[in-house]
């Protein structure tokens, strides 16, 4: 693992050529919207979808990051546009759908990869910190889901949503706020998978394990150094592992799957400890 947190994970050069199981026309004629599309996981999803023939709409808060993603993908011949959208602001999400999404001709797949949290013992959370994480990950994801569903209902077309969450089966310690938010996303995804089935909308979640990305910069280097050994496979996953699972479940290959949460986590939902703030003395062996 690199010491430079901005260089964590696969870069554009690697994502442009990474081998894939998908055919080059697997998403031909489709349009894919990726929130957090310039981040680690979202960027890999965007590269894979684009390499499979999809047109891309990427969103994020940081215009510079978005520009660098759009430039790299455009240089590789992909059809991509980027827009600054804060998913916590429902009015900017509505503007995205009324403007760029509609002008592009609509979308077929929404991937919600925007999100994040900070590591802190739950007992020390401030009300503001708790609210920031809930607002970002639960409310923000919901604003995008609802806007997409309205878009598909109003244009009488089917759609597919994939929400990137986290493994919630057992403790991901030091990030209880995000476990609460992501459990909410998983719950609402199950609920609307039923409610929106008559509209031809599928809703699924992917729960990544430890995936090396620039997002890991919020964790101390000593915490990050333990993540690879937090699962039975004793390695971190790659953003490509997540991207292929997203395209599988979000695309026609997942056409009979809805309301599911798929752990892509090296088995960390079954075994392993992840201490984002260090392992307390109580839990030290012997
Ligand atoms: C069984 C489990 C198996 C799985 C194994 C997985 C192993 C991997 C472990 C890691 C798991 C998850 C990894 C990832 O998700 S990495 C990628 C995600 N990316 C990020 O997290 C990006 C970084 N995070 C953020 O951007 C922020 O945390 C946030 C999401 C909150 C951004 O929102 P906002 O911009 O509103 O936040 P602010 O900076 O303005 O802060 C608002 C208040 O939040 C509190 N806060 C923020 N940071 C901290 C901190 N470091 N410590 C304490 N409190 C914090 C604070 O109250 C802020 O208000 P003030 O600034 O006024 O104090
Ligand atoms: N990496 C890992 O080990 C794991 C990651 N995850 C989850 O996967 C998702 C992607 O994470 P990853 O790629 O690693 O992290 P990154 O930090 O690299 O990417 C997250 C992206 O989300 C965007 N984002 C965050 N908040 C907002 C907001 N309010 N509005 C718009 N965009 C926002 C950021 O864009 P910008 O910088 O432009 O604001 C950033 O590019 C996150 O939800 C993360 O929590 C889950 C489990 C493990």
TrEMBL record:
Spell out the InterPro entries in the cross-references.
NAD(P)-bd_dom_sf, Peroxisomal_t2-enoyl-CoA_red, SDR_fam
Q: Which pathway does it take part in?
A: Lipid metabolism
Annotated GO molecular function terms are:
trans-2-enoyl-CoA reductase (NADPH) activity
Question: Where found, per UniProt?
Answer: Peroxisome
Q: Which Pfam families match?
A: adh_short_C2
Which EC number(s) are documented for this chain? 1.3.1.38
**Which UniProt keywords are listed?**
Fatty acid biosynthesis, Fatty acid metabolism, Lipid biosynthesis, Lipid metabolism, NADP, Oxidoreductase, Peroxisome, Phosphoprotein
> Which positions are tagged coiled coil?
none
Q: Which reaction does it catalyse?
A: (2E)-hexenoyl-CoA + NADPH + H(+) = hexanoyl-CoA + NADP(+); (2E)-dodecenoyl-CoA + NADPH + H(+) = dodecanoyl-CoA + NADP(+); (2E)-octenoyl-CoA + NADPH + H(+) = octanoyl-CoA + NADP(+); (2E)-tetradecenoyl-CoA + NADPH + H(+) = tetradecanoyl-CoA + NADP(+)
Protein name per UniProt:
Peroxisomal trans-2-enoyl-CoA reductase
Question: Subunit info?
Answer: Interacts with PEX5, probably required to target it into peroxisomes.
Q: Which GO terms describe its biological process?
A: fatty acid biosynthetic process
Q: What does this protein do?
A: Participates in chain elongation of fatty acids. Catalyzes the reduction of trans-2-enoyl-CoAs of varying chain lengths from 6:1 to 16:1, having maximum activity with 10:1 CoA. Has no 2,4-dienoyl-CoA reductase activity.
């Amino acid at each position: 693992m690199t010491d430079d947190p901005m260089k964590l994970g696969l870069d554009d050069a690697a994502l442009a050529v990474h081998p894939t199981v998908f055919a080059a026309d697997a998403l031909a004629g489709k349009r894919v919207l990726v929130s957090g599309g310039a981040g680690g996981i979202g960027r890999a999803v965007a590269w894979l979808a684009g390499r499979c023939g999809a047109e891309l709409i990427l969103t994020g808060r940081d215009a510079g990051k978005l520009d660098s993603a759009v430039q790299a993908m455009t240089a590789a011949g992909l059809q991509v546009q980027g827009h600054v959208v804060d998913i916590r602001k429902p009015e900017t999400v509505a503007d995205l759908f009324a403007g760029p999404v509609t002008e592009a001709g609509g979308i077929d797949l929404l991937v919600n990869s925007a999100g994040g949290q900070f590591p802190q013992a739950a007992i020390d959370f401030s009300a503001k910190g708790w609210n920031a994480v809930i607002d970002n990950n639960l409310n923000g994801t919901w604003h995008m889901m609802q806007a997409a569903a309205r878009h598909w209902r109003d244009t009488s077309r089917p759609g597919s949503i994939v929400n990137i969450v986290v493994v919630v089966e057992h403790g991901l310690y030091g990030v209880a706020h995000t476990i609460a938010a992501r459990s909410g996303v998983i719950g609402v995804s199950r609920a609307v998978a039923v409610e929106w089935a008559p509209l031809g909308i599928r809703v699924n979640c992917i729960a990544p394990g430890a995936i090396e990305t620039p997002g890991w910069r919020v964790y101390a280097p000593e915490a990050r150094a333990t993540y690879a050994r937090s699962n039975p496979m004793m390695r971190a996953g790659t953003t490509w592992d997540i991207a292929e699972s997203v395209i599988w479940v979000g695309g026609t290959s997942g056409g009979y799957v809805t309301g599911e949460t798929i752990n892509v986590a090296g088995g960390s939902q079954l075994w392993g400890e992840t201490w984002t703030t260090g392992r307390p003395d109580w839990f030290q062996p012997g």
